[in-house]
Amino acid sequence: MLYQRFHHANFVVKLFQAVNLLLTIRIGFIATIFCFIGLYAQAQQVKVVKFGELQKLRTSNTDTLYVVNFWATWCGPCIKELPYFEAVNKQYRNQPVRVVLVSMDAVQDLKKVKAFMQKRKLASDVWLLNETDANSWIDSLEPKWSGAIPATMLFNNRRKQYHFVEKELKESELQALVKRFKP
Amino acid sequence: MKNPILPLLCMFCLFLLGCDEGTATNAEAETIAGDAGYQVGDTATDFKLKNVDGKMVSMADYKDAKGFIVTFTCNTCPFSKAYEDRIIALHKKYAPKGYPVVAINPNDVKESRKDSYEHMQERAKEKNFPFPYLHDETQEIAKAYGATRTPHLYIVQKQQDGQFKVAYIGAIDDNSRDAQEVQKKYAETALGELLANKPVSQASTKAIGCTIKWRES
Questions:
Q1: How many domains does chain A have?
Q2: Are residues A149 and A61 in the same domain?
Q3: Do A55 and A90 sit in the same domain of this protein?
Q4: CB-based contact, A145 to chain B, within 8 Å
Q5: Which residues, other chains included, contact B88 with Cβ-Cβ below 8 Å and sequence gap of 6+?
Q6: Which of A120, A164, B75, B182 has the most Cβ atoms closer than 10 angstroms to its Cβ?
């Protein structure tokens, strides 16, 4: 009888332990998921867009200075000036200034762009424009743009401000432009 | 019933829209060579530039040519590389018809080491370029034409007085990444129309490309 009761108690303890273990695993599992979600939110993703999305950004009616830089992983001068845009992004984090780095890489090279972004720890918004024929959209965006990159546009539609540059910017030039236009 | 007011009203609205655009955008643009170069219809200057074989080449040397596919390109730009075979094909197809390719590398050697004359010679040999590959060392020709990127095409047509009129400026086709996926062969269409004595239907196109590596001033 005593033995039986002991045996029974042992069984309960074991059951309890098992449930506990399962719970711990589950909590661990959930925690891991949350961790990943956190990481995911922190590590920026490359947003693949069509021209319409870019056009929407260009015409958005907010009192924000948008600094849109056109670049590509294959473009040496673009990569050289990327840190200047990253610096602006960090510097004006709490102000209505938004940096968007629009990659001209082909959508087939998305992995390459993602890897580049992670390696360089880019914190600005990164878009990849998924359009093959630049002739179909460049003129609607900026007729003066020949298509050479790097190119950069700064605009605040609420304040009717717009500036376009088709050349590699020096850090001081970019800083001066942002200072000039920031709300 | 035709209402003559309606189109007028439309035009007036468009006019207002146009006015609004003008005042609203406060537009400014800075480009390096964009404004200074040729537009379609302009007369293009001839040049005298050193080819990879050491000889100087001018358009005037080609007595029988009807025109030229003047192609600003380079050794280093991935887009230029992606187009090399297509430029060779363009030359092979259109040189016999009177429109040979003349390739010009305008990149500054200090800014882009692998675009040196020696590297150009190597690349021309590797790819067996059937056309001249000229070194625009001073960048004067690229600036005169208003080239900004590589590859950047200027199709010029020889006039009766021997001058060269710009007939097409822009891209080779609509897909730099994949020759198999090309839908619109912009340059070939323009060449076909020129050869048929027709007006060029799309005389100017845009493409993404590497900026020309300008010399630090």
A1: 2
A2: yes
A3: yes
A4: yes
A5: B127, B129, B130, B131
A6: B75
B15 assigned to some structural domain: no
Q: Which domain holds residue A163?
A: 46-181
B positions 133-172 inside 8 Å of A (CB)? 148-149, 152, 170-171
Instruction: List phi, psi (to 5°) of B73.
Output: -150, -175
Residue A120: DSSP 8-state: H
Would you call B30 and A164 a contact, using CB atoms and an 8 Å cutoff? yes
Contact (CB<8Å) B25/A162 = yes
Phi, psi of B158 (to 5 degrees): -70, 130
Q: What is the pLDDT along chain B (217 residues), one digit of tens a residue?
A: 445 555 555 455 444 444 443 333 455 666 554 457 999 999 999 999 999 999 999 999 999 999 999 999 999 999 999 999 999 999 999 999 999 999 999 999 999 999 999 999 999 999 999 999 999 999 999 999 999 999 999 999 999 999 999 999 999 999 998 999 999 999 999 999 999 999 999 999 999 999 999 998 7
Whether residues A156 and A66 fall in one domain? yes
Task: Return d(Cα B154, Cα A158) in angstroms, integer.
Answer: 40
- Domain of residue A159, CATH code: 3.40.30.10
